[in-house]
Hints:
heterodimer, A: 9 helices, B: about 200 residues
Amino acid sequence: xxxxxxxxxxxxxxxxxxxxxxxxxxxxxxxxxxxxxxxxxxxxxxxxxxxxxxxxxxxxxxxxxxxxxxxxxxxxxxxxxxxxxxxxxxxxxxxxxxxxxxxxxxxxxxxxxxxxxxxxxxxxxxxxxxxxxxxxxxxxxxxxxxxxxxxxxxxxxxxxxxx
Amino acid sequence: xxxxxxxxxxxxxxxxxxxxxxxxxxxxxxxxxxxxxxxxxxxxxxxxxxxxxxxxxxxxxxxxxxxxxxxxxxxxxxxxxxxxxxxxxxxxxxxxxxxxxxxxxxxxxxxxxxxxxxxxxxxxxxxxxxxxxxxxxxxxxxxxxxxxxxxxxxxxxxxxxxxxxxxxxxxxxxxxxxxxxxxxxxxxxxxxxxx
Lengths: 163, 195
């Protein structure tokens, strides 16, 4: 048996279950020392008391009040700023690739044709018709970058956020 | 078990982000206990407590999209509740970190939580005596004791919530428990604790 009384820290560590090495000697000391046993009992009662939940009662209408408050303030859950950036990048990418892959000239013709008299037929039609070819030539690097961003966005939403 | 809980939280957050109000009601049901533990322990004013709990949930709803599941959802929720309570205490200039126990009356304590000597003798209720003594501790002691004992959080989780170093969290916890034990012993020796 150890002659030294157990310290408050040792008693607390023992009650917390954080002592691994000298449990046996602590137990032996507690069996033989009434003073430490009393101190241990006091801590034990304190630990039991600290688990008391009776002081934490929210009113019955609490949940309804929260929902009403949200509706009153018309609060909406926001998505993360990173996700917003990636989603926007993905949309831009889809838009650009669609120009890159498909010829939209027949669909766009009814849009620009009424204005061709005002601005000159050749300039507008050539602007649209040259768009895909200009992308094909000069913007490969930008397209690749957007592609990388979009893949990361996809990974972020599917793997990390699982959305 | 913990993995199941994480998956549940993922699904719940996903539904909330999709605008499912019923999912948020479930979220409130699941986390109102944790939030009330923190807010009620830190905020003495009974009238303000429930309002702060509501504010915490509104803040959570607003910012839930920024939660990336890099920590447990409960830790994130508790951090918001803790920060809101700290802001409240700072506005009212109440001590959070003072390393002493103010005498009763210096901090506003809900009357209903202070048992009279007569009540104590009659009811022999050590839990109520303890609650009034906890109320006299400074805010940081109160919240650390609550997170550790009531919510069974680890030192790491408490570190994440409070932003304090692990050594400080441990030292505050040990000191607070010793203070409580000593004060209860001194004050109520002839009652419960001495028998």
